[in-house]
Amino acid sequence: MNKKLKTFMIFLGVLLVVFVGALTYIVITERGIAFQGVYYNHIKEHPSEMTQAERFESDFEFLFEEIRDNYVNLRYKEELLQINWDELYIEYKQMINSINTEKEFYLLCNRFINELKDGHTNFTVLDDNVEWFNDSVKNLMRVRIIEDKGIIVAAKPTLDILGGEIVSINDMEFLDIVDKVAKYFSPSNHKTVARNNVIMRNQFWDYFHFFYDTYPEKLMLKIEMPNEENLTLTIDTQEDYKATSMSSIQNINFGFRESHLPTYRVLPNNIGYINIPTFVGSRREIGNEFDSIVKRFKDKDVQV
Q1: Fold exhibited by the domain 135-248
Q2: What is the dihedral angle through the alpha carbons of 79, 83, 86, 87, rounded to the nearest 10 degrees?
């Protein structure tokens, strides 16, 4: 084949691939196969003159119907958690009347979805450029729940707070902050696991965005150090804290408990059921217990 012709054919092939890819993307999003397309199709149906309350109600109904019609685990979750999705919709819909802001609506939707206790479901905004607050404060430290305390396990070397317990932030008990955020964003009924979900994602900082009118310019952390010395760390939330390496505590107990281990039972028709409540904590102990349960099932000819 002529070299020029071969080059031309390759060029045409590339153009064809790009064209087909672009066309496929347009078809998928416009017809609502992607979630984003589904929602855009929904908002196209909004009347031009719609009050905020009417829009909230319409969007909430859309959220309810999407889960009702497409969430494959809904019936299982209703039975497991003893909930009724239709009744929850009615209950939460009544709360819309007391909602005045986009932030409040966002929290309501998150708490509604959190009733499913499924980490694979979430409610978020479509615009990735939305910046709620200067979240570079999350680069200052890492915290874990250890023996029901918020312990700083890693921190910028310039902060002499390693190993300290965060007692409060702006005079609010630290664990109260974590528990309130967990109600909206942590898909677990287990208190320790729910707290760890919030802590590991650094979501406790978000509390001051969602439950304050404006994010505080200063955050005052009261910290109790291992030597029982009390100190106050003042964080300027207007400052940009770059992500850098942190000093950390090695070989620490991240709060592993017996209640984190898998449990099991035998269902009808001799089918083995294993419940793994969390992967937070020591995965080695969780994995060992899981293997032990599987072996027990096999020894008793239980289906696994």
Answers
A1: Pdz3 Domain (2.30.42)
A2: 150
